[in-house]
Amino acid sequence: MTGEQARLAWLDWLARERRASGHTLDAYGADVAGFLGFLTQHLGGEPDLPALGALRPADLRSFLAERAAAGDSAATRARRLSAVRGFMRHLTRHHGMAALPLGVIRGPRPKQPIPRALTPDQARAVAREVGEVHSLGRHEKPAMQAARDTALFALLYGAGLRIAEALALNLRDAPLPGNEAALRVVGKGSKERLVPVLPAVRAAVATYLRERGAGDADEPLFLGARGARLDPAVAQKSLREFRRFAGLPEHATPHALRHSFATHLLGAGADLRSIQELLGHASLSTTQRYTAVDAAGLLATWKKAHPRAR
């Protein structure tokens, strides 16, 4: 079996057994075709099954290095390596090829994208006015849903919560005026953290609860139209409608409010360790991404404060 025959057999298996989409088949097929083309030059001839089984980690590293020299990004090289690994594992399991030590090859680590935050005015507009879109024509909804959205997005921006963390809250967790206790949030990996809540956010939650009505402590804090826990897709749709109404950028999403919370704290002088605790990041390196977002603000502060910058 030649390498090309093996590639076609693998793609056929993906289509029949794994129900892979046409897009996936095209992408994986092209990645492995590129790998086989590299091997043809690297080995001096078209590889067959024995030649593929005799490959070593250094051969795959050479392929990745060649792709890097050709301009592939880290994310693209990681995708190509994933396709090649899947192809080689298939040959091992279904065609009797000797197993390769693929586990020792560490793929490129794609650079994390810089968080896209809203401006302070844009974030405040969402937190204060998102409920207003529900009183306009075709977007009209009950007052409870308008107050709910205002409270929810005020909480996302005011406390830096993930949308899943906010929607997981129950009535007993509701941060209300007169109670200065920090909000207990269960984040990723079931890790708990305490987050302070601003008076304005507590007031928005209280307004929503007056519209919502009383309930048992274990009931969801944020309810959907049918009385169940609010679906994240519904919250995202509400913000999408407000985004169009208010002329906000396309990256104005629930998670952008969390990014805005961190970015605006950093710009106001908060230290990274404190922001890390508030966001519930396991690693400080994750929080450090926000320093790139606020680079312009930090430069302005330097120019204002440093004696030699005047």
UniProtKB/TrEMBL annotation:
Keywords: Cell cycle, Cell division, Chromosome partition, Cytoplasm, DNA integration, DNA recombination, DNA-binding
Active site: R162, K188, H255, R258, H281, Y290
Domain Tyr recombinase: 113-303
Keyword Protease: no
Main location group: cytoplasm
Protein function: Site-specific tyrosine recombinase, which acts by catalyzing the cutting and rejoining of the recombining DNA molecules. The XerC-XerD complex is essential to convert dimers of the bacterial chromosome into monomers to permit their segregation at cell division. It also contributes to the segregational stability of plasmids.
Protein family (similarity comment): Belongs to the 'phage' integrase family. XerC subfamily.
Protein name: Tyrosine recombinase XerC
Protein's organism: Neoroseomonas terrae
